[in-house]
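Figure S7 source data.
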Amino acid sequence: MSIAICPGSFDPITLGHLNIIRRTSRIFDRVIVCVMYNSNKTSPMFSVEERIDMVQRAVYKYPNVTVDSSAGLLAEYAKQFPGAVVVKGLRAASDFEYEFQMNLINKKINPEMETMFLTSSGKYTFLSSSVVREMARYDADLKGLVPDEIIEDIREKAKQWRSS
Ligand code: ADP
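Tokens for the predicted adenosine-5'-diphosphate complex:
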């Protein structure tokens, strides 16, 4: 059985992430979306539990996709699934440089781990979780940027932010 791991911070999950997950689910038998919370991204908008819950609601329609989380390094996490391939999305040249560097580090920790990249679909090239957080801060319309199932969660969180 072919297994793919789609890692990310998903703070929150966007339609750009979902596009990569959906396309990966057509290529591999099983996809594990792994919410990583070891990253040096300080002060996330959502707790890891909230992020997992939102990813779960966004991927419910894909029967071969499951959600997991890890506080450790991706290269260590992947060791539990021998032969699994890490699949990431590539938006622009800046993503490429970062990913190339990460791949070299990951190879040192886990030489068995292979990473594949899917190029971002044109309409999501400029979409990132930070763009969504910024738009939410100003109460902008999030339709077409994030899955419909989680729009209310983001609006609610942004409201709490504004009033705190
Ligand atoms: P972000 O960069 O939005 O904070 P993550 O750190 O959660 O997102 O990224 C997880 C993965 O999803 C990375 O491989 C990243 O390149 C990919 N990704 C994020 N947004 C998009 C997008 N709009 N199109 C394609 N891939 C994306």
